[in-house]
Amino acid sequence: xxxxxxxxxxxxxxxxxxxxxxxxxxxxxxxxxxxxxxxxxxxxxxxxxxxxxxxxxxxxxxxxxxxxxxxxxxxxxxxxxxxxxxxxxxxxxxxxxxxxxxxxxxxxxxxxxxxxxxxxxxxxxxxxxxxxxxxxxxxxxxxxxxxxxxxxxxxxxxxxxxxxxxxxxxxxxxxxxxxxxxxxxxxxxxxxxxxxxxxxxxxxxxxxxxxxxxxxxxxxxxxxxxxxxxxxxxxxxxxxxxxxxxxxxxxxxxxxxxxxxxxxxxxxxxxxxxxxxxxxxxxxxxxxxxxxxxxxxxxxxxxxxxxxxxxxxxxxxxxxxxxxxxxxxxxxxxxxxxxxxxxxxxxxxxxxxxxxxxxxxxxxxxxxx
Length: 369
Fold this sequence. Notes:
This protein is an alpha+beta fold and 369 residues long. It folds into 2 domains: 4-166, Thermophilic metalloprotease-like; 191-365, no CATH class. It is 32% helix and 27% strand. The chain has helices spanning 4-17, 35-47, 61-68, 71-74, 79-87, 108-117, 119-130, 144-149, 154-165, 172-189, 275-282, 309-312, and strands at 25-31, 51-57, 90-95, 135-140, 195-200, 203-208, 215-217, 227-230, 238-242, 247-249, 252-254, 258-262, 265-270, 291-297, 318-324, 339-345, 351-354, 357-361, 364-365.
C-alpha cells in the first residue's frame, strides 16, 4: 500500500518549496530506490504546468565513477549539465543512498579534483539561486542505509523523516508558512547588527556580521528546514570550536573535528577520526579554509544527530558553520569548490551574544520577538 506521506511530501516540494509555475523547466533527480517519491514529484510538476526532466541515478554509479575514472574524466563536466544549471527554473534533488559508506575509501585527491572541476558549475548555481532565477530544494527519501546511520529501524526512521518534513500532516504548507513568519522576526532583529560571539563547551568564536544579510530558511531550499544563516566577514572569524557531532563529507565520516581560526582562516585543524581527509579537503583551494556560512538550527522536531547533514544542521539548540563557499545572497564574498557544514551543540551551557547583548542561551532565543 502506498505511503500517503510520500504524496504529501511531493506536494510540499513542488507547490511550496520550488513553487513550480506553468512553463518552468524543472530537473528532478534522485536514485531509483526513491521511485515512489520521484513519481509523485513528476506528477505534481506536470499538473503544475512545468516541463520536467527526470534523472534517476543507477545504484552504485558514484562508487563506480570514482573507482574507474581517470583524472581527465574526474574533471570533465557534461555540457547538458551546464545547460541545466544555466537555464532551468527549478531543481528538486532527492537523496536516496543505499550505501552511505560507498566513497569512504576513495582517495582524497580524486574527490578534490572532482570538486575543483565543479567550481564554475557551483558558482553558477549559487549566483542564479541568489538572484531568484533558480529555485531549488534538497530532500531525502528514507532508505535502510540512512536508517542504519541513524541507528534506527527503517519504519522508525521513516517516522523521523516525515515528522521533520510534515509536522502538521493535514496542512504542512500552512505550517511552514507560519514557521517562516516566526523565524522572520528573528532575522529582522538581526538587521544592522555588527558582531557575534559564540561561547560554550569547547567553543569560543568571534566574528563580524556587519553589512551581511541573514536568511530565513523556511522550507524553500531544504526539506526539512529550520535555520537562520549568514556569511561572516571573511577575515573576521577568531577563536576555536570543537564540533559536537560527527560530520560526513563525500561519504567520509569524521569525528571530533576541531578548528582554530585567525583572521578568518583555519590555521589549525585536527580530528579524532579522519584527520588526513580533513586536511586534504581544507587545502582544496584558497577559500576552503575560510567560513562561508554561520547558522543556527531551529527545527524542534530534530532533537538528535543521525549522521546526515540535511537533518543534523537543523537540530534545535545547535549552530553550524560551513568552511568553503558562502551564499551570495548573504553578502559573502568567499568562493570555493567546497561547502562543508559542521554542527555544534549549544543546548547545555552555550550562548550567543550579538553586539554585546545576549541573543541565545542553552539552545533558545532570549530576545523579545
